[in-house]
């Protein structure tokens, strides 16, 4: 991911957005997981309440109808056999109606898994065939074995459905739910055994296949108890084991063993139907009550666990949301503070580099005195890393201002040295000119007079060069005139200060006066331009000077026959003449241009170089 060219605000937002997005995702995920767990718990509780309990009632009703149906088939001539059977059927139809009503609910259907929904539909489909079985029973066109198998086929899917309900995320509690279903299924084994033995004793015969089925049912019951009681709490396991070892179940166990040991029964023997009625139904009733009580006690244990799941889901959601809000608040606040500090630092840096330092440089260039403490105020920052950068900016600002002030002081000192030396040279040169003038007046020898004139001309040039140092230093020249002077005389005076004055041709100029204060500067300016023309043109060529009035003043043109300048050099020279830059000690190649620029600026004269 590339963030080049982006603002610091965007980078900070991106930096803070990534952990916030991650935290939001984690909160959403945790809330979803815990919420789903709570939803599954509530959905499973609703299924158990609306479907599971009615289905348990259905199992018990079917068990009662199954027993009475087999008894009816064993002795259909008994006077009370059919009325009892019909009452049992009515009970079954009532609880089945409750199951059907719950199964039609869309909310229940939505909470069931596809597998559980298919199992429930299969159970209801099997129950739909109950009417046909009942008709066959009343017509006595079906035997007890097939009837028992049909009723078993109704009960087994019910247990598979109950065993498949996943009611708790807690593994231990979920195992206890399955163990309760297993214990109930052990009672189903006894119920099947009871129906088979009761009908066989009433009919007066128990064949070998029926006795093998009884033996298998007894073995399955014991196995189911052994497997499932291990998953129940110790108190429940102890209670159930004590009951099966108690005198209350001893008659049933003894009678069961006698029947299995006696072999097939074809005539009344040691165990008759009356004896079986005494020992089996009370145990079945007690087991049914114990199963109900175990379910109630399990609900008492599972309810706190369910509440813990709900509380955990609520706490996770609320705390996660609070943590998210706190993170957003802290991130926004920290981000705003960072952006504010960085924006302030950027603003201060721009102000220092773009406003304060250039202003100081301009004022120093204008010769003003600058106070470092005033121009480089101390900016206060925090003690963090950004504050350390700000402190470095303070140090840099102060160092830059101090360096500029020192440089200005140095330049001012150099200028003062230049002015001092130039003034001294001017005094000496003035005295030398006065002495030469006296000697010229006193000398009558022509050769000596010519030498004195040449010496006088050389001294005049030396005076101009010394005056140039004064001008570069920003001071005014010592020569001053109070009265106006003719322009022609000013030009002639400038010509007299040039070494090759013989090559200069001055055409007649209009009679125009030059104000006294401007005479010295204008003479020096023209002399510099004339000397430049003579130096950079062939020695055998002439330099012409002429001028004329124009709409906005007077134009003086100096023509030479020099080789010319490259376009970029000519442009640079004209910029120097027009803008009057500060004189740099390192730039000594074109001192004349600096002098001309200073004089032109002071007298409001425009000077430009052009191709010949």
List the helices and strands and how they pair.
Layout: H1 8-74, H2 81-103, H3 106-111, H4 114-128, H5 130-139, H6 144-164, H7 171-203, H8 208-229, H9 234-245, H10 250-262, H11 273-365, H12 372-375, H13 385-442, H14 446-472, E1 485-486, H15 487-496, E2 504-506, E3 513-514, H16 516-535, E4 543-550, E5 553-559, H17 567-579, H18 591-603
Parallel strand pairs: 2-4
Antiparallel strand pairs: 1-3, 4-5
Walkthrough of the structure:
75% of the residues lie in helices and 4% in strands. The protein is mainly alpha-helical. The protein has 3 domains: 319 residues, no CATH class; 110 residues; 132 residues, 2-Layer Sandwich (Heat Shock Protein 90). A 3-stranded mixed β-sheet has the order 2-4-5, covered by helices on one side. A two-stranded antiparallel ribbon has the order 1-3. Helix 6 packs antiparallel against helix 7. It is rod-shaped and about 190 Å long.
């Amino acid at each position: 991911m590339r963030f080049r060219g982006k603002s610091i605000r965007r980078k900070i937002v991106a930096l803070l957005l990534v952990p916030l997005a991650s935290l939001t995702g984690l909160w959403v995920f945790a809330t979803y997981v815990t919420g789903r767990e709570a939803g599954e718990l509530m959905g499973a509780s609703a299924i158990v309440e609306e479907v599971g309990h009615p289905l348990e009632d259905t199992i018990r009703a079917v068990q009662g109808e199954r027993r009475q149906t087999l008894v009816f088939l064993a002795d259909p001539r008994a006077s009370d056999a059919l009325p009892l059977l019909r009452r049992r059927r009515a009970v079954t139809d009532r609880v089945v109606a409750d199951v059907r009503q719950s199964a039609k609910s869309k909310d229940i259907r939505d909470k069931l898994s596809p597998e559980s929904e298919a199992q429930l539909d299969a159970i209801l489909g099997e129950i739909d065939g109950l009417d046909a079985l009942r008709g066959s029973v009343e017509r006595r066109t079906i035997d007890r074995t097939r009837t028992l198998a049909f009723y078993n086929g109704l009960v087994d899917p019910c247990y598979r459905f109950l065993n498949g309900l996943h009611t708790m995320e807690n593994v231990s509690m979920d195992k206890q739910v399955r163990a309760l279903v297993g214990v109930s299924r052990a009672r189903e084994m006894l119920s099947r055994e009871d129906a088979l033995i009761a009908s066989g004793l009433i009919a007066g015969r128990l064949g070998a296949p029926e006795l093998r089925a009884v033996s298998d049912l007894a073995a399955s019951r014991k196995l189911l108890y052994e497997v499932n009681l291990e998953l129940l709490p110790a108190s429940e396991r102890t209670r159930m084991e004590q009951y099966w070892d108690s005198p209350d179940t001893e008659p049933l166990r003894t009678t069961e063993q006698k029947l299995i040991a006696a072999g097939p029964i074809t005539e009344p023997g040691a165990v008759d139907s009356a004896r079986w009625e005494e020992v089996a139904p009370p145990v079945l009733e007690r087991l049914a009550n114990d199963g109900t009580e175990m379910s109630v006690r399990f609900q008492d244990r599972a309810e706190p666990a369910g509440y813990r799941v709900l509380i955990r889901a609520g706490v996770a959601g609320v705390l996660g949301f609070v943590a998210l809000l706190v993170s957003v608040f802290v991130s926004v606040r920290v981000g705003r503070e960072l952006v504010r500090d960085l924006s302030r630092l950027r603003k201060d840096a721009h102000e220092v580099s773009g406003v304060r330092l250039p202003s100081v440089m301009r004022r120093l260039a204008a010769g003003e005195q600058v106070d470092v403490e005033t121009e480089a105020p101390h900016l206060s920052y925090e003690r963090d890393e950004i504050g350390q950068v700000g402190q470095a900016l303070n140090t840099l600002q102060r160092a830059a201002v101090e360096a500029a002030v020192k440089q200005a002081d140095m330049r001012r000192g150099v200028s003062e040295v230049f002015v001092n030396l130039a003034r001294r040279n001017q005094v000496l040169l003035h005295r030398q000119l006065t002495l030469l003038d006296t000697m010229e007046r006193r000398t009558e020898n022509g050769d000596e007079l010519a030498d004195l004139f040449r010496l006088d001309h050389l001294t005049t040039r030396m005076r101009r060069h010394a005056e140039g140092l004064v001008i570069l230093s920003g001071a005014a020249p010592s020569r001053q005139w109070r009265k106006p002077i003719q322009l022609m005389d000013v030009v002639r005076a400038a010509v007299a200060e040039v070494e090759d004055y013989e090559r200069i041709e001055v055409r007649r100029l209009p009679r125009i006066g030059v104000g006294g204060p401007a005479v010295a500067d204008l003479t020096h300016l023209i002399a510099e331009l004339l000397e430049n023309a003579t130096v950079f043109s062939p020695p055998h060529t002439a330099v012409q000077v002429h001028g004329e009035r124009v709409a906005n003043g007077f134009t003086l043109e100096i023509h030479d026959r020099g080789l010319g300048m490259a376009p970029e050099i000519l442009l640079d020279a004209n910029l120097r003449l027009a803008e009057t830059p500060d004189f740099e000690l390192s730039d000594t190649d074109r001192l004349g241009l600096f002098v001309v620029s200073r004089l032109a600026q002071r007298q409001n004269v425009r000077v430009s170089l052009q191709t010949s």
